[in-house]
Amino acid sequence: MRFDEAYSGKVFIMSRPTAEESDVILFGMPMDWTVSFRPGSRFGPNRIREASLGLEEYSPYADKHLEEVAYFDAGDIPLPFGNPQRSIDMIQDYVTTILDQGKFPLGMGGEHLVTWPIIQAFHEKYSDMAFIHIDAHADLREEYEGEALSHSTPVRKICELIGPENVYSFGIRSGMREEFQYAKESGMHMSKFEVAEPLKKVLPTLSGRNVYVTIDIDVLDPAYAPGTGTAEAGGISSKELLESIRMIADSDLNIIGADLVEVAPAYDPSEQTQITASKMIREILLGWTK
Q1: Backbone angles phi, psi at 220, to 5 degrees
Q2: More exposed terminus of the chain, fewer Cβ within 10 Å: N or C?
Q3: Apex CA 225: angle with CA 191 and CA 188, to 5°?
Q4: Which molecular function GO terms apply here (predicted)?
């Protein structure tokens, strides 16, 4: 599937009518084939789109309007149900096509394993890049119950691909002892529990670098985002996440792509999680894209 093919489903608010006139491609990755607790994140992208209809197009955080950003919602990649490897291959090919046309990829998950093929695509284009990971979970396992393809493994794979010294994790409050030990010994950068304060200290060290950012919605406390597959108590507030997105926007990092993952709407009948996620997508569009 090409990202510029016609899409007849719901689209994120104020999407441009064609990819040709857009600088940013917004796309969904409806995959939850490897989750270890509660499935349902494959329904996240479309519910985020639906929630965006209630958003204001203007952001007082960025003092910008969505009409100032040329983006195209290309819909969801038609991933084959239950086939992780084929899905990963399709995501990598899809993002490669976006990059080949000089556009900014902004993905919506789906489980967190979807970030792995995106980084593989970026690694082919950017030999020196950094990776910012905002999440409740370390995602540093080598495998889960014997499966190397798992939503608990993408950051470990990314460390091995781009070098752990180029990986920066924030908000981490869950993982195996061995994951935290790996983070400590490998040279990667992990900030536990908080996001905004440690991020403020790290951003100057990444000045001028090409950086990809992934946000797992479960970095938020379940009080703010209960609609996720593996909720973890003790998380940050939506206000702190907005502040962190704004902080990245105001830095001189060269943000080359981003994603927001793990919205599982079935566990939040209030729709609070997808409403929050849609607002975060708006702020990313207004702050991180050129």
Answers
A1: -75, 145
A2: C
A3: 20
A4: agmatinase activity
Which CATH number is 238's domain given? 3.40.800.10
167-172 and 104-109 beta bridge pairing = unpaired
Structural domains counted in the chain: 1
Query: Tokens representing 289?
Result: 């894209």
Q: Tell me, what amino acid is at 187?
A: G
C-alpha span between 35 and 255 (Å, rounded) = 28
For the chain, first and last CA: distance in Å? 25
Spatial contact of 168 and 183, defined as CB atoms under 8 Å apart: no
**The pairing of beta strand 64-65 with beta strand 58-59:** antiparallel
Length of the chain: 290
Residue at 19 is within a domain = no
In a domain, 7, yes or no: no
- The range of the structural domain enclosing residue 87 comes to 24-288
Neighbour-count burial for 199-221, b at 16+ CB within 10 Å, e otherwise: beeebeebeebbbbbbbbbbbbb
Q: Model-level pTM? A: 0.96
Residue 18 lies in a domain: no
Contact 91, 114 (CB under 8 A): yes
